[in-house]
Amino acid sequence: MSQSFEAILGHEFKRPALLKEALTHRSAAQGRGRGHASNERLEFIGDRVLGLTMAEWLAERFPREQEGELGRRLAYLVSQPVLAGVAETVGLAAALSVSPGEARAGVAKRATVLADALEAALGALYLDGGLDVARNFVRRAWNEAMTVQAEPPKDAKTALQEWAQKRGKDLPLYEVTGRSGPPHAPEFTVTVTVGGTDASGTAGSKRAAEQLAAEALLAKLPA
Known about the structure:
The protein is mainly alpha-helical.
C-alpha cells in the first residue's frame, strides 16, 4: 500500500520509514515499542509546511489582495473539512494503519484522523524530498479547493453571526458539549444554537470545533 501511496504523492521515498510513520495512527503504534512511532510528530511538521506553501501560493495567485483577505482564504484551505476532503480524494484512508479495534470503529474515515494524517504525509514529503516536492503535491491536491472560491470566504462563525443579525435573532450561543481522547490529543465537541436550531462540530481544539459547528448549522439554515 505504501508504494501505491508513493505514486499518489508523486515521490519515491529514499527513507520509506518516513512514509510508514506518516501513515501510522497512534492506535497502531501503542504498545509496539519506541521503534514504532505514530504520525503525530510528522503532523506537527506538515502543518507548518502546508501553511508556508499555501501562503506562498495565495500571495502568488492573488497579488492584489491584502492580509485579511488572504488570511480568510488560508484559513479555509487549511481547515479540517478541506483537509479531510483532500485526504478522501487521494485515497489516504485505505493506506492508513490503525489498530484492529479502531478500524472496526471506522476511525480511519474520521475527518480529524484524515486531516492529521494528510498533514503527516506532507511532513514526510518535506523531510524526504524537500520543499519543492511538498509544494508540488499541495498544488496538485488542493487545486480544486483553491479555484472553487472566487471571492475570499468568510469564516463560518462570522457568517453565522451575520445571518442571525439580519433576521433579528439572538447571537449564536456556543457550548462545549463533549470532550474525549487522551490529554495530549483531546477532541472537543461544541454545539451552537441560533433561533432554536442547533448543530455540533468536533475537532482537536475548541476554536476549530466552533467553526465546524457553525458550518454545520449554516448548512441547515435557510439562505
